[in-house]
Amino acid sequence: MKRAMGLDVGSKTIGVAVSDLMGWTAQGVETVKWTEPDYPEAFKRLDVIMKTYNVEILVIGLPKNMNGSIGPRAEASQAFAKEIEQHTGLEVVFMDERLTTMQAERMLIDADVSRKKRKQVIDKMAAVMILQSYLDRTNR
Questions:
Q1: Residue 31: CB partners within 8 Å, gap ≥ 6?
Q2: Which spans in the chain are helix H?
């Protein structure tokens, strides 16, 4: 199984998760701060994470609109994917991430996590959910 990294790409932060060595579970790593579209700024930190975990495949959340169409955020994710694919030469896979941030928020609220703390971990958790969806689909 190839080691995968899941990314929840926002305009100010990128949630990062990596798969375990068996490719069964996704673990949150961190939230990388960046200013879209400053790709080199984001790649500086992401390169270190990819090297540390020997990442071979990138799974990027594609935030489609509820009707399945591609809006500005999904276009931004596609642009990011194109840049990181050229930068790394790694395979990039998209996962539909509709509702992942809302699901992550719900889980954190249910777990009674404070608003301030939720803000710090929400993107990382969304990345875990994106990557876990991918792992579940490929391990069937």
A1: 13, 14, 15, 16, 120, 121, 123, 124
A2: 39-52, 72-88, 100-110, 115-138
Q: How many CB atoms lie within 10 A of CB 12?
A: 10
Distance CA 40, CA 54 (A): 20
Beta-sheet strand order (sheet of 4-9): 26-33, 13-19, 4-9, 57-62, 91-96
SS3 87: helix
C-alpha angle 45/41/132, rounded to 5°? 50
> What is the model's pTM?
0.94
124: helix, strand or coil: helix
> In angstroms, what CA-CA distances link 3 with 46, 64, 65, 122?
15, 25, 29, 23
DSSP assigned state of 53: T
pLDDT tens digits for range 105-125:
898 999 999 989 888 899 999
